[in-house]
Every structure is written in structure tokens, then in C-alpha cells.
What does this fold into?
Amino acid sequence: MNELTRENPVHEAATGDDSQARLDHLADIAARLLERARAAGADQAEVSCSEETGLNVGVRMGEVETLESNRDRGIALTVYFGGRRGSASTADLREESLAATVEQAVAIARHTEHDPAAGLAEPELMATDLREFDAWHPWALEPEQAIELALACEQAGRDADPRLENSDGASVGSGGSLSVYANSHGFVGRERDTRHSLGCALIAGRGAEMQRDGWYTIGVAAEDLEAAAQVGRRAAERALSRLQPRKAATGEYPVLFSAEVARSLLGHLIGAVSGGALYRQASFLLDSAGTKLFPDWFSIHELPFLPRGFRSASFDAEGVATRESPLVEAGVLQRYILGSYSARRLGLQTTANSGGVHNLQVASNAGDQASIIAGMGRGVLVTELMGQGVNAITGDYSRGAAGFWIEDGRISHPVDGFTIAGNLKQMFAGIEAVGSDVDPRSHLRTGSILVGRMTVAGDG
It folds into this structure.
């Protein structure tokens, strides 16, 4: 069976949750579009149908600034005539609009050039064991309740210290997404997930001495969120800790990326080993599969089946079955990140990553952040990165940063307005520690990452 089993309809009625009925409706639309595409002569076709709902509230200085409620939907159809491809989309579910969408996709396909890499993923790769991952937890959040939470979060932060005279505000968000992907191989896959968040940003000090920082919490269920007062106080602590920064001393030092910014290093790796960058020859990691990029102890695993994972899935954006697998093992890059199109362009096979990666976990080899700092001696803890100074082709890395100066194995004082620079290949090879302080707020899960030596450019 290659479609998720419906929950008990009696249970749905009792809880007021009509998500499965709405998925049924989207699946029916997908089936009708595929039939129309076949009737129009398409060799292959695929349809993605989605529906999203959300509530977002923003407050600042005790006043409501924004209150938004949204309900969006979209239908995207792609048809294939041999190696010719055409796509069209609509948000109108009337029959005449669906018919026009098929006509537009077919017309586009008939005027495109032949591409031998175009087409659906191979039918034998389609997922058959379709599961849910405890990712559907609707929150019956009324606007008044959301406003109260945001106000309480901001107030708790502002009350923490008289130096917190200003605020960039607090926000509460709650939303859900339903999607159906179907193709002419007979595959039909359903997904549903929710996402809830609460955040606060505060400003400490006055005039030119002002410093801004914040904190947020995010989860697929409301009970996964930190308490509003806790988020506000954490934001206050972070903003206060940045007061009276000094300039960093220019030189070469160990650089510790805190967990929330360390995942940006994973993002650079993912971009460099993704199929699009590789077949376009726009990556500093061309022909790197099977080569050692990291220390012997370093590993990254893809875990698509994590309960309540932010990117857990039984299938990728093409219906291909996902699987647990290493991306990096014993420091060696095991594979690329490919969908079927990029795989064909490279003469390889899809890695079930059409649409992106599914929960990457970096293995730690050290204790928490404090223990890593204790062993650093002198260096920099980076808690914020600015700018886009990364060259995807050469791997050259140069970004503005802020954080804290480490002296004698402890935090000495805040620093800002400095630049850290290096080359990503050398940075990857120079990783000395990954902390156990994993930031759970992303599908890229890592603790703090210590790079043994980077160039730090400051005025000190």
C-alpha cells in the first residue's frame, strides 16, 4: 500500500480535526489532474498539492503591531513528453481552472527543448512504506491568547533588568501544512505537519552603546515550546551580555561557533555537495565523494525517520523512498545530495534528496560549550554572523561576526565588529571539537563547532 492510512473518522469528528478529509480532497484533485495529463498525451506527469494555514502575532513595547491569519493553497503540475517538460500552477480549484492548468503545462512542454535528464524518478524507487512521524499537532490558538503570550514574553524580558529600556518585539506563530504528491507511476504520498514558535528580541543600553539580541523557541507541538517568560528572560540575558563590547585582537586564533551559528557551516557543505552546484561546476567540492574532508572522528548522518523531526519524511519531493545513511563517515564524504534530475546529469542515482536533506545529525566528540571553552586557552566564541562572504566555487570564507573573547579558558568580554576568514576546505579539516550542546531548533542538528585556527581581523 503506497498511501497513508486514514485515521478513524469518528476520532476526527470528535476532535474537530478535518486534516485527513482535506488530504483526501487534495489527493482527489491530484488524481484528476494526472488523468487529464494522460488524456492530453503526456508520457509522465506529477502533481503537488498543498494547503497551509497560520496565525502570526507581533507585539512591541507592550502594544500589538501585527496580527495576521492566512490560509493559502497551491497546485503545481509538471508534464513530460519524452524529454520535454512543461509546468504550470494555480491556486484556483475550480474545474475550468484545473483544465486550463493542464493545457498550459502541455503547451509549454511542446515548445521546450529535449532534455535527456528530464522525467520522473524510476518507478522501482518509489516509497511503499509510508508513515507519519508525530508531526501533526494543531494548536487551537486564538488571537487573544497569542497576544497574551507575546506580551508576557516581552514583559518578562524587559523586567529582567532596568538597562533593557527598548525592544524589537516579541512574536508568536502557529501554522499547519497539508500536502499531497502524486505521479503517473501510481504513487500517492500525503504529508501533514505543524510548526509553532515564540520569540523575543530586546535592546540593552542607550544611544551608541545599544546592543540587540534575542531568543526563540520552535516545535511541532505547543508543548515542545519553552515557556514565554523563559524565552523573554533568555533574550534579556543575551542582550545584556553584549553590552560594552571591545574590539577583537587581530591575528590567528581558535574560533568556536556556537551551536545556533555552527549549522551555517553545514549549510555551506550541503550547498557544495548538492547536485545543482555539481553539474553546473559551481562548487569547491567537485569530485569530492570518497575523499576525506574532515577529521577521522567526524561524521554526519541523515535521519529521515525521527519522531517530531522538522524534516522527517518517508519520501522525497519525487516520491523516492528516503533512507537513513551517512553523509560523512570517519571524515570521508560518502555521497552527494541528489534528486533524480541532477543524478542523471552526473551519471549517478538519486539519493532521495529531491527537495533537500532530511534531518542531519553531527556526532559530537566533546562536552558542552563551557568545557570546550575551558580547553581553548585564547580565542573567539562566535554567536552571530553577518554578511554573505562565502565563495561557493573556491570555498573562500570571510564573514562579519560578533561574540565573546576567550582568555585563559573562560569568557572574558564581548567583542563585535570583527571578521573571521579562512577557506572552507581548511576549516572542515581543522575542526577540533563538536560539542554536546545540540541546538534542537533546526533539521540541521549540531553542537558548538571548534575550528582550530582562523584569521580574525579586528582593530584591537
The chain has two domains: 9-240, 251-457. The chain has a mean pLDDT of 95.
